[in-house]
Amino acid sequence: MNNTDPSSLLHKFQFILDSDPLIDEVGFVHPSQFAAISDSSISLDPPSSDDNLKSKASEANPIDMAFWCRDHKLGISTHVIHPLYNAAKHAFMFSLKQYRMVVDLHTNKVVLDTDNVSNALSSLPALESEIMNHSRALLLLSCDFGTAWNCRKEVISKKEDIMLYFDELKLSTLVLSYSPKSERAWIHRRWVIKMIAGKCTDLHEVLKNESELAKRIAEKSKMNYRAWNHRCWLVSYMSESQIIDELINNRDWAGLNVADNSCFHYRTRLMTRTLDDSRYKQDAIENPSHATKFYQLWKEELTWSETLIKRYIGRESLWLYRRFLSLCWIKHFADRMCGDNVNLFLDSELLLFRSSTTIPDNVFEDYESQAMFAATYVMWLIKQLDEFRGLEIQQKVGEEIEEVVSKVCPNKSFLWDLVRMKSGRQ
Amino acid sequence: MWDVNELWMQFEIMILNKGESILITFPKQFLIGESCLIIMGELAAEQHAKYILTIEKKKDDVESVLMEHLRINGAYWGLTTLDILGKLSAVDQETVISWVMSCQHESGGFGGNEGHDPHVLYTLSAIQILALFNKIEVLDIEKVSSYVATLQNEDGSFSGDKWGEIDTRFSYVALCSLALLKKLYKINVEKAVRYIVSCKNLDGGFGCTPGAESHAGQIFCCIGALAITGCLHHVDKDLLGWWLCERQVKSGGLNGRPEKLPDVCYSWWVLSSLIMIDRVHWIDKEKLVKFILDCQDKENGGISDRPDDAVDVFHTYFGVAGLSLLEYPGLKAIDPAYALPVDVINRIFLN
Ligand SMILES: [Zn+2]
To answer: Family, per the entry (chain B) (predicted)?
Structure first.
């Protein structure tokens, strides 16, 4: 590939991107795979009269071996990444320098030479489109090139056209298709959404699409902190009914991905929103039936969590999620009701603990983990509950916990010491 | 706003506290004995230094070229590793410093490389590199600190750059930068602390914004920022220590979040946090040392995220820094909050 001319590579790349605006996936392909897929590839050039001759020609021409595009999927040969990146970067940096110079002239109104200034200003639209083209090419090769994302923000924030913002979401989606963890691509989305939110009031559709995208990416790239963080960020824009919808829609996915802690954190965030809503607090007094709705929601979540814990043995995320649910349940619901609700609840948790600590004879690692998580779950609750309740649980299952800890996780016995000290019994 | 004198007093107390906490965290019985070293194999210090020094020569390789937008972070990781290994003198200071200064933007902030836009993350790396060479004075300190200070928002949080993304990482980076420049009085420290505390979760950990998932990297940032401002009393140390010590997996390595694989970089984030909150005795340190040493490429130098993976400068730094926190023999001590060698920090704050 040494004789490949970098600038014609870049032109070809940009030509492909322009001629198929529906490209929704980019990937890098090793030349060995490339030969195989190229055989069936559709020609990117204007149709030729002799297809046989054409395919022979592509083998000879390195540029034709650089890209592969079909069904709106774009493959880039790993062999051309380096020269293509260099060409895109130089083109971008060059236009950027000129663009910023012109913008400076404009904002500082240095009217020493009026002709020069107006000449420079007339070149602005051309420079802007160069910047947009080159930064797009660059970001499809180097996803976290911050300066390239920034100058796109610079250019479009000066325009009134809201559709430009939707184009930015599309580019960010394309970048995320090859680099789902790209921090800058996710940041760019949030900036764009904030700009859209400032221009139009109905974000319903945008939020739905964003949540859908985060879900799709989380599917391919497990435990992706940035994708789930983006989804959590959307929660603050959601209405109460959207929160409930998300909880329901996400449930099946969570049940199939029980090791994805980020997904359970997302549920934590949604469940917490049902508590923070000032409406909820207001309703508890004024509209008891509305409050019952939340009570029911939390109760169902606890039941579901228990089902998962019993079905999927030894999953840390499930137990951590239960720590959160139980503590909030006690604080926000059980404690507020008359009768002995907290004790009833805690008794049922101790049953869960006991049923989770029986390890079958042919010891499986997962069952040992389950026993450890069950023991640390109860110890954690003792630590987080008030002294009186903590002491009560300790009296009920203290010896059993000690036994489990010394059997499956003796290295965690200091946590038991800590818990005992907390509730005042050495 | 904060009273300047009050801040200075707070600073002095903090440094004293720091000295004390290091003494407390490493009582003699926790030191790793020579006998363990024989069992665990050794740190290939020479090879790691050589590996770092050759990266510079490979800057035209495709891997380096694709990372050029954050080269200044890479320089900080590499140079700090060399300093911990006692090999910083092998580097040509002048070249590094003039290159670092060429990354400065007219706003006062630094870009990740020449001609790149400024960001607070790169600004801290620039300050840290200069600190390593005892050359902070080449900076226009007023200008740099003003750049960082303007990134503070009304609620006390920090944006990473003028485009406004907010993250507790940026809070740490801003507070650390200003502390190293002795310009903390330029911002509202009380509000900055309040924002960080608002990112605390029910599990005791911290996320990047209020309500975001706890993550060891974010926890390091929040705890580091609270340590730097002398505000660790906002933390339930037992609860956070609980979450952090649950990051140690069977192999001895640490993960950054529940259910994730262990990774050498978390040796730094989890470990430094545990040290700052005085709970490092809650993990098995010998097993962690063994895990890090297992991730070395003993022949060609460098450390990877997990045993048998490809090495890189990022994990080499975190591996060596982690071993330094574990008081591995022959390594310079590193400060858990500032992420710079202790002698560099002492030079800044005690002189
Ligand atoms: Zn890592």
So the answer is: Belongs to the protein prenyltransferase subunit beta family.
